[in-house]
Write a structure and sequence with these properties.
This protein is of the alpha+beta class. The protein has 11 helices and 11 strands.
């Protein structure tokens, strides 16, 4: 396989990495069966073992959002989703962490280029954290003092940087947002060493993602380490848009659904149920739902890519095309849960034991559907947008305040 050499943190050390989308995808597919073999261990550890993190790093998944002018492969959102899908076919928790950690290069577009180069001297660094404002950022000279506690820090146990949303304060008084009414917020990035990880991640599913709560106490964050999705520093391009970090998320759902379908088909053949009517109908019904859902996700991504690659913006999509992006994402998660649930029922008592991957996938898909991108808030957001009303989660549509 080919590789590129990138400057290390000291300007002299070189770090090899995969050069393009095809190689990253190939490495992800090669790693998938290894992740499947480690899935029980990952779940029991409630976080990714360090060697699994390094295996993910070696695929290039964490660098795939970095731009070519930084020496990165700059995978588009379709290619990124394919990589996350391949890894999630092996293990959804590992795929989830890969999806979160791969945002590092995407966040770099919202930072000054020189700052991003200093923060991320090596392109395989991992970023984790919760973007919704939960903390308090008190404005001080040169930046903010950040304090707070956040939930759902997927991958925080192995992250290099932690990004957290917080409400802005000045002299203990809340600062208003761009509309002058809503509270102002900002995203702040701090080194993992300044973060206290709280061992709270005891969950139904996605246990191996290590999505623990975390706390930050009175840490100074320079202004240059803060950003909002309304301000893109890296110009234009298919990745320089505010909702870019959400686009590859359905890869997790599609990967686990495909894994469950393949497992159920192979198991049915192995136990001699190929001629069973119920088995035939259930598998075919699930395959049809999966195929339609996958085409919906990639169709929406392809149309978005066509518009953005031609120099357009999200505003150049038709309202239906723009609403279709978050809707297809939500539908992928809901379909994955439905597919796994039906295959679980089809397998009857053989599925109920913990060694069964269907048991784990049932719990994983149940948990991932609790994420906001799979909730009814997305339906309200898309519906309101189509009706000219106010979406409750406009960022899902790539709509942000005009200024910080």
């Amino acid at each position: 396989m080919t590789a590129v050499d990138l400057d290390g943190a000291d300007g002299g050390e070189k770090v090899a990495g995969p050069a393009d989308a095809a190689e990253i995808l190939a490495r992800a597919r090669e790693l998938a069966p290894v992740l499947r073999d480690r899935a029980v261990e990952i779940e029991q550890a409630r976080r990714l073992p360090s060697d699994v993190v390094e295996s993910l790093r070696s695929t290039g998944v964490f660098r795939m959002g970095f731009s070519r002018d930084r020496g990165g492969p700059e995978l588009n959102s379709i290619e990124q989703t394919e990589v996350i899908e391949a890894l999630s076919y092996g293990d959804p928790a590992a795929g989830w962490c890969a999806m979160i950690g791969s945002d590092t290069g995407l966040y770099a577009a919202f930072l000054d280029q020189d700052v991003a180069e200093r923060m991320f001297p090596i392109l395989d660094m991992v970023t984790a954290g919760l973007l919704f404002p939960s903390g308090r950022a008190e404005r001080v000279s040169g930046g903010f003092r950040l304090t707070g506690r956040w939930q759902f820090g997927s991958g925080v146990t192995h992250a290099d940087w932690v990004v957290s949303g917080a409400f802005r304060y000045r002299d203990a008084t809340p600062e208003p947002g761009p509309d002058g009414v809503s509270p102002g917020s900002v995203l702040l990035m701090v080194p993992r060493s300044d973060v206290e990880v709280l061992d709270t991640w005891h969950t139904t599913g996605l246990a191996g993602s290590g999505s623990c709560d975390y706390a930050i106490t009175d840490v100074f964050v320079p202004t240059e380490h803060t950003f909002t999705f309304a301000d893109v520093f890296r110009g234009t391009g298919v990745l320089a848009h505010p909702e870019v970090h959400m686009r590859n998320m359905p890869g997790v759902a599609l990967g686990v659904a495909r894994a469950a379908l393949d497992h159920a088909r192979e198991a049915s053949v192995a136990v001699g149920r190929s001629d069973d009517y119920r088995t035939q109908v259930t598998l075919a019904d699930c395959e049809s739902d999966f195929a339609a859902t996958r085409h919906g996700v990639y169709g929406a991504l392809r149309r978005q890519h066509e518009v953005l690659a031609a120099g357009g913006s999200l505003d150049d999509l038709t309202p239906l095309e723009r609403a279709g992006l978050p809707l297809s994402r939500r539908h992928a998660f809901r379909t994955a849960r439905s597919v796994v649930s039906r295959l679980y029922d089809l397998s009857q008592t053989s599925a109920i034991y913990r060694p069964s991957p269907l048991d784990r996938w049932l719990r994983d898909t149940t948990t991932m559907c609790q994420h906001v991108v799979a909730q009814d808030r997305i339906l309200q957001t898309a519906g309101a947008y189509l009706l000219g009303a106010r979406p409750s989660f406009p960022l899902a549509l790539g709509i942000t305040p005009l200024q910080r």
